[in-house]
Amino acid sequence: MATALERAVSLGSLTTVEAIEARGARDREPRRGALSVRGVSKSFPLHVRSATTVKQHLRHPFGGRAREQFDALRELSFEVEAGEFFAIVGGNGSGKSTLLRCIADIYEPDAGEIDVRGRIAPFIELGASFHPELKARENVVLVATLIGLRPSQARRRSSDIIQIAELEEFVDMPVKNYSAGMEARLAFATAIQVDADVLLFDEALDVGDIAFQEKSFETFEALRTEGRTVLYVSHKLSTVRRLADRALLLENGRQLALGEPEAVIEEYVRRSRASQGRQIPRSAPAPFAPNAGYPPTPSTPLPDNGAPPSRSRGRVKARLRRFWDATVALAIAEFRIRYLDSALGYLWALGEPLLMFTVLYFVFSQVVHLQSVPHYPVKLLLGVVLFGFFTESTVLAMTSLVTRANLLRRIAFPASAVPLSSTLTTTLTFGINLGVALIFALLSGIVPTALWLELIPLLLLLLATATGASLVLALLYVSLRDVRQIWGVATRMLFFATPVFYSVQAVPEAMRHVMMLNPLAVVMVQANHALIDSQAPTAASASGGIGWLAIPIALAIAMPCVGGWLFARSRSLPERI
Predict the structure, then answer these.
(1) Most buried residue, 359, 412, 513, 514, by most Cβ within 10 Å?
(2) For residue 167, how many other CB atoms are within 10 A of its CB?
(3) 432 and 538 share one domain
(4) Is residue 163 included in any domain, yes or no?
(5) Is the Cβ–Cβ distance between 261 and 77 less than 8 Å?
(6) Model-level pTM greater than 0.70?
(7) What is the dihedral of CA 251, 256, 259, 264, to 10 degrees?
């Protein structure tokens, strides 16, 4: 039976100090904290004048600097113990979703610290992360991989997820044809499959019909039984009453009440009615002051969601694995979206460079009369395929962050995986086109030699150049939307400055050394020497020696490193897209 002191705490009739002492007296055994939030604040800039193009920056070089701040979170501090169901309530704009995004490492707090012990999985508007053109199973595998499952696990559990969502009859239907309830059920069924210690939910139980909502309640009860820690944002107060162990009330980013759900809900309702002009008299003080609740538990901050410092090598391995899984999953989804798994789509991926080759061959062989170059058709086709890969990968990656903004704002995964997935998708198409070019070379009478093995390092050099340019362009496009037009002009200039349709011997020697500083030119010249004409100049001789050749090679290697470094520094990226 509860003591009088405990009843007083639950009814909110004690002051902050008394509440803390009462709870400490009631529960002396050490608590194992799952989550610690200490002094967290988060603000968003309100731009007076926002410059999003190079033209606007030139016209207003000092524009966009004067700004006001919107304080979404203001010095929040609380602890959540392992196995606790912790509810967060408040009106629209009170900071609930921002708090979840900060805990999930989607947003970076401006001040304060957040320590999470164990693996965390956020489910913030998860249904909005589905791609409308993909089918249910494809969306399940993609989203489940992004939120933490290995691709093999996601594929293995996809049938169970669809069964839980009660969508077996609609598994082959694109999600764009789903109703809002069907999509929400699929999202919830996907979310609960992730093996995480701390789960963040945003309005997860207000979906589906009554039967499915009851199934959702049973699922949360099972999570509590398993000892999972749940942070749950909801406007549905009956859900908070039924499930929550404790509740937190936010208003305008401030922490107003923290403690027993019934007392917090009472304060929330009282303030909501008061804001509507219906002041309700209060017979007792506010149920909880900002820092009431469980006493802070002494703990050592644990980086990277709780992995011990001695396991730093394992953390790095897990990060790299997660980065690779996300990149591959996004690339596969993008490949399916682009070609819609149709034969016509795959044929167009092959036909586009062939059409470009046909036009260029007619112009430069019949009009300009360049057929004196040995095996000119093969050289031209190979050049078109190689340069086309660079152009297509950079153009697609440039807009990828903006296109995938919904994912980046809702799921915590490496943002650099987005532009790299575009490059990987283009690599799949490039492999098909390169195979056709090599077959064309064999049919033209070119005999393979050991020099053909040089194609491997050349392709790696090309891939490094394309990857680095893709990463930098993707970041630039977030802030400067006319980078697309600028890059369109730049790629045309680069095409004519690269020996794609002409031989490097035709370039004056003084200009040749400058042209060979371009890594693409190195790839074209050496590929022509190794695959087509062994008598043609090598990249080293065209550059003026090994020393000069080292410059474009170093540039190609440095570009992805610079791109990765820029992404590592852009921790506020989801906020700016």
Answers:
(1) 412
(2) 21
(3) yes
(4) no
(5) no
(6) yes
(7) -60
